[in-house]
Amino acid sequence: MAAPTGFEYRVNGTGEVTVTHSGKVAARLRGEVASKFLSDVESGEAQQVMARITGNYRRGNERSARRHPRNAR
């Protein structure tokens, strides 16, 4: 599985964090959530942390799950 890429984040003067993916806003974090995010980014793999916080990460099974009889509609 490939590591997530294309994420960036910015912190404004009020402490709000804006996470972007490929130039588009993916999440805005404020308060305690923003503080925790910043500490996680500094101590871990930044791209992975941003992918998880935005929900924009793949597990590799999307195509096969779509064809499963349980998901047929």
C-alpha-based Rg, rounded: 15 Å
Low-confidence stretches: none
Helix content: 25-40%
Average pLDDT score: 83
Overall SS class: alpha+beta
Strand tally is 3
Order of helices and strands: EEEHHH
3D shape: elongated
Count of alpha/pi helices = 3
Strand order of the main beta sheet, please?
1-2-3
State the domain count. Answer: 1
What distance lies between the first and last C-alpha atoms, to the nearest angstrom? Answer: 29 Å
What features would you describe in this structure?
The protein is of the alpha+beta class. Helix content is 38%, strand content 22%. It has helices at 31-43, 46-54, 62-67, and strands at 7-11, 17-21, 24-29. Strands 1-2-3 form a 3-stranded antiparallel beta sheet. Helix 1 runs antiparallel to helix 2. The protein starts with 6 loop residues before the first strand and ends in a 6-residue tail after the last helix.
Secondary structure layout plus pairing:
Layout: E1 7-11, E2 17-21, E3 24-29, H1 31-43, H2 46-54, H3 62-67
Antiparallel strand pairs: 1-2, 2-3
Helix pairs in contact: 1-2
